[in-house]
Every structure is written in C-alpha cells, then in structure tokens.
Automatic annotation (TrEMBL), chains A, B:
The keyword Transit peptide applies. Belongs to the FAD-binding oxidoreductase/transferase type 4 family. Its cofactor is FAD. It comes from Actibacterium pelagium. Residues 36-213 form the FAD-binding PCMH-type domain. GO terms for molecular function: D-lactate dehydrogenase (cytochrome) activity; D-lactate dehydrogenase (NAD+) activity; FAD binding. The keyword Oxidoreductase applies. This is D-lactate dehydrogenase (cytochrome). Coiled coil: none annotated. InterPro entries: FAD-bd_oxidored_4_C, FAD-bd_PCMH, FAD-bd_PCMH-like_sf, FAD-bd_PCMH_sub2, FAD-linked_Oxase-like_C, Oxid_FAD_bind_N, Vanillyl_alc_oxidase_C-sub2. GO terms for biological process: lactate catabolic process. Keywords: FAD, Flavoprotein, Oxidoreductase, Transit peptide. The lineage of its organism: Bacteria, Pseudomonadati, Pseudomonadota, Alphaproteobacteria, Rhodobacterales. Its EC number is 1.1.2.4.
Amino acid sequence: MPNDKALDALSSFLGDRFSTSKGVLEAHAQSETFVTAPPPEGVAFPETTEEVTEIVRICAEHDCPVIGWGAGTSLEGHALALRGGVTVDFSRMNKILAIDVEDMNAIVQPGVTREELNHELRATGLFFPVDPGANATLGGMAATRASGTTAVRYGTMRDNVKALEVVLADGRVIRTGTKARKSSTGYDLTGLMVGSEGTLGLMTELTLRLQAQPEATSAAVCAFETIDQAIATAMTTIQMAIPMARIELLDGTGVAAVNAYSKTSLPECAHLLVEFHGSETSVKEDAERFGEIAEEFEAKSFDWATRQEDRTRLWAARHNAYWALQAYKPSTTGFSTDICVPISKLGQAIADTNKALEEADFIASIIGHVGDGNYHVNMFVDVSDPVQKEQAKAQAEGMAERALKLGGTVSGEHGIGFGKLKFMRQEHGDAWDVMGQIKRTLDPQNIMNPGKMVPGN
Amino acid sequence: MPNDKALDALSSFLGDRFSTSKGVLEAHAQSETFVTAPPPEGVAFPETTEEVTEIVRICAEHDCPVIGWGAGTSLEGHALALRGGVTVDFSRMNKILAIDVEDMNAIVQPGVTREELNHELRATGLFFPVDPGANATLGGMAATRASGTTAVRYGTMRDNVKALEVVLADGRVIRTGTKARKSSTGYDLTGLMVGSEGTLGLMTELTLRLQAQPEATSAAVCAFETIDQAIATAMTTIQMAIPMARIELLDGTGVAAVNAYSKTSLPECAHLLVEFHGSETSVKEDAERFGEIAEEFEAKSFDWATRQEDRTRLWAARHNAYWALQAYKPSTTGFSTDICVPISKLGQAIADTNKALEEADFIASIIGHVGDGNYHVNMFVDVSDPVQKEQAKAQAEGMAERALKLGGTVSGEHGIGFGKLKFMRQEHGDAWDVMGQIKRTLDPQNIMNPGKMVPGN
C-alpha cells in the first residue's frame, strides 16, 4: 500500500484512536449519494487541534491524502476517499467551548452537531439558525456552506460563521476572523474556507453567530391545486419582501411520502409550509399579508400551527422529507440533486424540470427552499435497471444545465463534492482556474481531500 | 522614469483618456488621510472592461504598478500610488447596466456612486442599503468592504455584493458568483475580492443585492447626560435584538461640530441617532421598545423625526459629521481612525479611549456605528506641531491595540490601505502569510496596488 508509512506513523501516534478495521473503514465510505468510492485506508479520531496538526504533518510527510469527516450526511460524495488515504473523523472533537450570550456567538469544535448546539442554547434565548435538515456537524456544515429551510431569513453558513481555526496542509494553524460583528482588515479567509469542502484545510474551531429566539413564531400549511400556484405564491411573497422565516415547497408526491413516513394526513397536492418569526403583532401582520397572496393564487386551504408541538411536528415532517422520500418506494433508491436559480426564474425552472421528468421511467418529487430559488429533485430509481440509472444521471445533468441557462448555480446547498465537478468549468469559467491556483498554493502536494473541487486535481 | 514604456504604450492606446498632466496626477494623490504619497505617473480613464484588460496587460508587460481609483474618499490611503505607476480612474465606467426589480439586484460599472444608484432606484420601491456617508463609488466600496450607518440592519459590502467581473493581473477576466440568492459551488471568490483593496484585481462590473424600501420608517434623536448612558442603551438595544436600521453615537464634541456645520441645534451632549424600518406597526413597536431602554438609561430627551424632510436633515447632518469635524477647528486637520469590538466590549473600549485622549494636547470626538461595535475617533490636530502629530499617531495605534486586546479588529470599515498595514501581523498572525500567498499566486509580478495589504509587499 502506498500509504503504509503514514498509517504506521498515525497508529503509533494515536493508538486505538486510529483504526484500520474493516467496519470502521466501510462506515467512512458511506455517502447519501450515488457516488461511490472505496473506503479510506485508515480513520483517525483526534481530540485536539494539536492532534489534527500532527495528523496532517504525518500525512504531508508521506504524501497521503487527508479527508475530513463530520456526520457523513453530505449529498455529493464530499467526504469520500477518492484517492485513498486517511479520513479524519471529528466525532471526538465535539465540545462547545464557549457560549457568549452578550455578543451572541458560540465557539464550537467541528464535531458538534447543530442539534447539540441548539440544545445547549435553549436556556439562553438564542439559537443557531442554519438548518439543513440532517443533524449534520457544524464543521461539516461550514465546509460545505450548508443552508436549508431558514436561510431565506438568516442566511447560509457563509453568513453565520464569524471566525475559524484551520489546520493547513503544511501544518500551520491559522485563525481567521474575530468576534467583532464586521471587519475590513484583509482578505476574507473565513469566507474562503467556508464551502471549500476540506480542500484547503481542516477546521478545528468555529465561532458562530447566534440569533435571538423570536418573541413569537407562527407556522402554516397551505395547500394548492397546482404546483404553479404554490410557486407563484412563493415568488410574490419574496418579491413583496415579506420577511419569511421559512417558505418550503412540497409537491404532491413529496406530501404523499411525508404522510407515509411521518403519519401526517396532508392532502396529496402541492403545499407551501411557511413560518414567521417576530413580535406578536409583526408575525400576525406578516402572516396576513402572506395569506392574502396565497388567496390571490387560489390556495385551497390554509392551516395554522400555533401550538409549539404542532409546529415541531410540521417541521420534523419537513426535515424528514429526505428520508421519507428514501423510504417511499422501498424497491428504489432515492437520488437527490439541487439547483438554485434567481427567484424570477423559479417557475420556469420547475415547470421545465417537471416536463423533463415526464420522460423518465421513474417517479420523482420536487421539494425546495423556494424563498431562495433553491429546489431539490428526488428521483425514485430502481438501481438494478441501467436505463433508469442513466436517466437519473441525465435528469440531474439537465437540472444543472437548466440552472446555468437561467443565471443560477448548479448547487444551492448540496455543494460540489465529487458529483458536480463536471459543471464547475461551465459555471465558473476561468474563475475555476483561480480556485485551482489558490488550492495549489495552499496545498501544493494536493493532500487535502484530493480529487474534489478544483480543476486537474 | 522606470515606467516610461508603459506610459507611452498607454498613451498610444487611450489617447486623451490617458493623462500625465500635473493637475490630474495631483488630483489622484489626494487622500482623506494623513498618509501621503507622491502622485502616480499617469492616470487612465477606461470606458470598457476590454480597455481595463489592455491597460493591465500593458502594465504587466512593463512591470508597472496599477492602482484603482473610485471617488478618492477612502481613509487609509488605499488608492495612493506608493510605488508609482498608473492609476485607473473608473469615473467613465459609471453606467448602471441593469436593474432587475423581480430578483432585487442591480448590475453596475464600478464608477457608479451609491447616490447615483439610489437615485435611479427611486421609482422601483428598492434601494441599495450600504451607506458609508461619503458618496463613494460602488467599486471603491466593494474594494474596501465599506459599511456605514445601515450595516447593523443590512450588512456590509460583503453581504451585498452578489457577483463580480474582475480583471486579474495577468489580463484574465473572471466572473465570480451568480444572480441566485445562494450557492455552494466552489470557493467564494466574490468574498475574496470584496475588501481586497485592488491588490488582487480590478473590478469592472458588480452585481449588487437590493432591498425593498421599508413600508414605514421612523427616526429619533435621543440625548444623554453621559456617553456611558448612550453606549449602555445601544448595547442593550442590540442584545435585546431590536431590529435597528441605524443606531449611531455622537459625543458632545461631535454634536457641537454637527451643529456648527449643519445649522442644527442639538444639545451638546452625547446622542444616539436611531432609525427603524418596517411596517407601520412594527416600527412603532420597535421604537417603543427602544424608548423603554433609553428611558431606563435616563435619556434626557427623545425627539421623533416623523416627517421625511426632518429625517433627511437628520441623516444629512450625521453623514456630514466627518466634514463637520474637519471644519470644526479651522486651524486643525481632522484625523479619523476606526476600530470594531465585540458589542459587549464597546463600553470599555470607548471609556478607555476617552481616558487615553485626556493625555492628548488636542480635542477629539467619538462617533460610531455602535450597533456594530464600530466607532471612530476624530482628532483635531495642529499639523504644524510635531508633538501633536506624534500624539495623534500614538492615539490611533492605541485604538488598534485596544481593539485587538478586546477581541476585535483594527478596522471595522476604513480598511487597511497603507495606514494600518503594521497591525496586520498582530491581528491575523500566520493567516496574514496566507493572504500574501494568495496575492503572490494571483499577482506574481506584484503590479496590483503594490505596497498594500500583504506582508513583504
């Protein structure tokens, strides 16, 4: 094995916190995606920044790939060891280091999950808003620039990571950003690292921006005869600048899957699931304005979830939509892809997508964070059928091309990983080469998550 | 002259849109700062991206520095030609290329000023929120990551530039970002360019995020016996998460200067100037909550500016504070410096600053965007007195050190330019070297605004 020396050195260094057992390796070859790769050659479980530094140093010495691992919930094969090497599993770096209520931020290790952080925050009146559905680690969310249902109001990880500690490929440990609310001193390295998918370094500490829990929250489920009406309602709501906290689209198939999985009983047609945050009166006012727009587009029903437990059930159902869809057709595998288009193009993009899906031999569902112009297609593919597999691939590629044609991006939140590398040139042109130059500068040996993100890698 | 060949080639290329006349050169050596430098050797006035590309190509061929120039309002000598070379004045690239009301964005050339853009937007119901006071160009604001009075609500240029066209040092023209509201595809090069102060490339086109004009706006002026009470009110307001549109501090000296310059008649004590954006009811509610906090900290008076003309006068007075301070003591020169600290440290930072200022032979004023923890000290310095000049320098350095000691940043919005280069190591540590690596990768000849931003440059 080419990386034997690195594996031996890591084993000596970490003892039983370095594993080459088949079960552990295979657990780190799992991915919520069609993209597959052989397992890594070893998995390290560091507990401190110093240990991460030494792991990277050892790997650099032996030219061995290093791949970060959070909760394994990424959707484009980000954390797969395409070129072998060592996976750094951050599950033991899962401490919340500080919660600063006065300055509304938290300092966490990368292995803390968003649910763990929010659990700790309950008594403070604060919360961490970014919510991709899965209970991902905050390090993984930062590395993939995750977003989700609340991004329409609170932004993505780009907007909610204030500062980082990062171990670079040459073992340097840098700190980017400060706890101040803004700064104009130098290149925005925090922003450069967020979304870099582990190709520039490994994050070992994150300073996150927290939000005040809203004084009042209300949520509603709104059913439409057609998906077009639901989308028109969403587009108008955003264009009227109603400050939505969430505005989610589920098509009829999506609702059927959610009903089956979460024991809900929504009518099986297109729905918007919405939430409002604010004061008692502003929430009421925003909800009324939204209600008027929904009515204009002939919403069939409009049900309020005013009780906390109803809202929790509602959003749990939405969060579980991915697994609901996975489970909906047991003989099939769910294949999910996402794009994001300018909000004015959302109707056209979804209509074109539905038209294209008519050609497929499988059924599919469209769900999305429509307030951001971001939507997902979940395809129910019989993977034993090579025709269906090819069709699914073609549909995903058609989605990406549609996004580019409409001035959008080939991924709103899933990222590039391995799955969407082929679209980088088309989306970024020569700017993709600039990404490659930055990568080669900071990682000339190409040990940090090789095979991902940049050209010729 | 070492750059004669470049100057000759540029003159042939641009004709009378390339100037080496003394008046033009000296106009491009002006700076709102103590930092001085000799004028550039030539000034180019391009009209298209293609011309900017050719200018950069010619300069690269002859190893000649290239410095971007917007409105010349930066405060740390950003656009001074420290190593000679050619200034690229964007005043003829001042077209608004597109206003997309549905997607709430605008595409502009870099020489458009923020006031020009907002003038064009008047009929659309949208506005561009970032407001540094000066009528800076949008290109300059992006290059320096400007912010100002409304950043507490709408963010800085980091948050409001969606996409860029940039001419790189080697003449490549790249496009970063898309018109979609979010993306997770690749390194955030838009974020890398915003705030890079012309050291990585020249921006030739900007796609900006627009905001809906609020349905209702109200503003108030709130006087306090002591500056501590004003700061405590601001800190509590932010910690209570009241969604302020602006919350500005002026100390007694600042108010006196504003009164003299803008013919206002505010009592000469510490003030908060606040503004609320929202619906009629939310604005009323927010203002009431703010009023309760101000009362708790014994505000002396609380005057509403409900009429548009009163608000305009109020914010014009605040915007003119910089010039008001410049004019306040005619025998002195105003020297302005800014820092940004975590909001919880704001009271301590300002108290320490005031204590330090007691040692100075000149008077000074503290004004600030206190909702962000960002404040400015304006010192009235007799520049003919070398002792005062030294004292001013020492005060500014003390400010920067105070910011770092309190977990903040040496500039919230003025940037680094030439004036604050010496603090980069202290603030960023090894991350500053990473900035240097990126710079050398994208500009190996070091022609883009040399002498700024990065180490050993």
